[in-house]
Design a protein that fits this description.
- With about 350 residues, the chain is of the alpha+beta class.
- The chain has two domains: about 130 residues, Elongation Factor Tu (Ef-tu), domain 3; about 120 residues.
- The chain is about 40% helix and about 25% strand.
- The protein is built from five helices and twelve strands.
- The strands form two sheets. The chain has a six-stranded antiparallel β-barrel.
- α2 runs antiparallel to α5 and α3 runs antiparallel to α4.
- The longest helix is centred in the middle third of the chain and has 33 residues.
- It is rod-shaped, with a radius of gyration of 44 Å.
- The chain starts with a helix and ends in a 17-residue tail after the last strand.
């Protein structure tokens, strides 16, 4: 056997294996035989961080703990946030009183005082006018000097002006505050209310809440650490959904539909089978990743598939290698069955 033949031998063997594999898929599909895929269990993770910067007061969970959606997992120191909220509440209350005072208008006592001031001003003006007229008559009889008459005339003019001022003051009291002043006070109240809402949100954000039913995977920070929105405190592994990330060979692409039933088994529980269904088929092809265990698939284009699994006892764990069996050419399931087969 010459050197050229030796160099071509691996390529010939690979091509033969590929043809054999494709024929097996084709013959199996015609006979209704199952398709076997290999993949790993995958889940979603959530990295929880506080939406604020403050020292952590307590963390209530440990790695491996199961948590429920809405459960408080950790808390920050809240003395400063509580004080900010109380200050905002006081400012809102004060501004509400200011607005209420303006909207209520003038008090009856203020109106009566303005009316009395006007009456007093009218009386003074009348007295000043009488004095001026009397002195003017005396001046005509040469019994009063011109200076005395001018002083009386000036006093009468001042008194008349005071009457106008008192009447204007009464009109203002009767009209009440200007609508622009009331609008300004109302806008200030809205601003204070917004500040109070923000303070309450910040106080609520001092509690770290579980976003879903999950298992605590990592506890990254500890009480006393400084929390920030950029620093996760806990990592949660979501218990639902759980799926297998596998890769579908191109010849079987037309024989697998969304919602097709599947069976999943693992080396960890050899005698146990898990029901599943095809929930996603990638629209684009890719080269098989190197972590797939079947060597004959590594040189061919495949399509990523996501096979959702029923995992009632949480035995399927992140990264666990599994084997998936899917019968080819299954009838297309109805729309309501493509989302969940665990209830069947």
């Amino acid at each position: 056997m010459n050197r050229k033949t030796l160099l071509l031998l691996p390529f010939l063997l690979a091509a033969s294996a590929g043809i054999y594999w494709w024929l097996q898929i084709k013959d199996g599909a015609e006979a209704g035989a199952p398709l076997t895929l290999y993949g790993n269990v995958d889940i979603r993770e959530v990295r929880l961080a506080f939406n604020g910067s403050e020292r952590i007061e307590e963390i209530r969970v440990q790695e491996g703990d199961r948590v429920k959606k809405g459960e408080i997992l950790a808390r920050l120191h809240t003395e400063r946030l509580q004080a900010v909220m109380e200050e905002a509440e006081a400012m809102v209350a004060a501004q509400q009183q200011v607005l209420a005072t303006l909207e209520a208008g003038s008090r009856p006592e203020e109106i009566r005082k303005a009316e009395a001031d006007l009456e007093a001003a009218i009386a003074k003006a009348q007295a000043a006018q009488d004095t001026y007229e009397r002195r003017h008559r005396l001046s005509e009889q040469k019994l009063a000097s011109p200076e005395v008459v001018e002083e009386a005339k000036a006093a009468a003019s001042v008194a008349a002006a005071q009457v106008k001022a008192a009447r204007a003051a009464l009109d203002l009291v009767l009209a009440g505050p200007r609508k622009e002043v009331i609008a300004q006070a109302r806008a200030q109240l809205h601003a204070q209310q917004a500040a109070l809402t923000l303070a309450r949100v910040q106080l609520t954000d001092a509690s770290l809440i579980a976003s879903a039913d999950a298992i605590v995977r990592d506890r990254i920070l500890e009480p006393g650490d400084m929390a920030s929105p950029q620093t996760p405190v806990l990592t949660l592994a979501l218990v639902n959904p759980v799926w297998v990330r596998a890769y579908l060979p191109e010849p079987a692409l037309g024989q697998i539909t969304l919602g097709a039933k599947a069976t999943i088994h693992t080396d960890s529980y050899p005698g146990k089978r898990y029901a599943g269904w095809v929930g996603f088929i990638s629209p684009t092809a890719e080269f098989t990743p190197k972590n797939v265990q079947t060597p004959e698939l590594r040189t061919r284009l495949v399509y990523s598939v996501r096979v959702f699994a029923c995992n009632p006892q949480d035995e399927l764990r992140l990264g666990m290698p599994v084997t998936v069996t899917i019968l080819l050419n299954q009838p297309s399931p109805s729309a309501e069955l493509t989302s969940n087969h665990c209830g069947q």
